Amino acid sequence: MAVSPSLFMEQVRYLCKVFRVQTLSSVLAAWDGVTGLRGDIAVITVDDGYADNFQPLIEAATKFGAPSTLYLTTNCIDGGEPTTVMWVILAVHHAEVESIDLSEIGLGAVWIRTSRERELAVRQVDAFLKPLSANQRSAVINSLIDKSGRGELVRQLGRSVMLQWDQIRKMRLAGVEFGAHTLTHPALSRLDPAAARSEIVGSVDRVREMLGIEAVTFAYPYGGQDDVNEMVVDICRNSGARAAVMLIEGDMPGCDFFRIPRIMVTSDRSINPWGRFSRAMWACELEGLIDVARNFTALVSGLAKSTDRSCEVGE
């Protein structure tokens, strides 16, 4: 998970005090119904289908009455191997070397001595992999794992990092909802229409087949504006999926059901400078006040730079 299980529980505890936490399907059903949506509602979504989602999402649903919607990368579930980005994370975080030479793909020496360097390395390598084909991504991943110095350990960890279908069924009995997240987690806008359709429709059909559910929602991998173009949305709209979520911030009322916005939740959105959960920070994030402050800071910074340039010209 992007946050620790303990922090996730603190976030969920607060959500349940302030909002009615529902699954996305429940929200969509109410939206289409006679009564419509009432009150403040929060929807918890989680992507990919990693094994560390199992206990926290069950506990959130059973202990706090906070069901979530978990989107599955179905070929990774079927094959028991992680997504590309998880392979990168495993290789980088378990490497025994201080840098990995990726000169053959044009990235040079990628330093991984500190937590900050490791975070940047994961982002750098993942960004490079996004436009590549599945075979090209696999070749780079294998090279990265071998050069980590702990290839055997990384591959062993990779075999246990995804959820299994029997775990998924147990989670569903506990109140967790499931949706589709493509077969292999590519950046869909980089694919041709036939490949994009295979990824989307294949995963929607697989979730239906394995869980016996008809109304399946979908999450676009990466989910940014550059990752989800009109072709991708049109294919998803005709895939049989009920709706689809992106990873851009916005308001749900009035939005296209196949471009539903989401907030990316990371640890820093609810942690104070002393590393502890802060209800005040979390509340401000949920109300959008932190974004207002960030935008104001960026505006002031931009004005200051503009003023500096004006002074330089005047001088």
How would you characterize this protein structure?
The model is unreliable at 289-301 and 303-315 (pLDDT under 50). The protein has helices spanning 5-18, 24-32, 54-63, 74-79, 84-93, 115-129, 134-147, 151-158, 165-173, 193-211, 230-237, 279-287, 289-314, and strands at residues 20-21, 41-42, 44-48, 68-72, 99-102, 108-111, 177-180, 218-219, 244-245. It has 13 helices and nine strands. Helix 10 runs parallel beside helix 11. The chain is globular and about 55 Å long. The longest helix is centred in the last third of the chain and has 26 residues, at 289-314. With 315 residues, it is mainly α. It is 50% helix and 10% strand.
SSE inventory with pairings:
Blueprint: H1 5-18, E1 20-21, H2 24-32, E2 41-42, E3 44-48, H3 54-63, E4 68-72, H4 74-79, H5 84-93, E5 99-102, E6 108-111, H6 115-129, H7 134-147, H8 151-158, H9 165-173, E7 177-180, H10 193-211, E8 218-219, H11 230-237, E9 244-245, H12 279-287, H13 289-314
Parallel strand pairs: 1-2, 3-4, 4-7, 8-9
Antiparallel strand pairs: 5-6
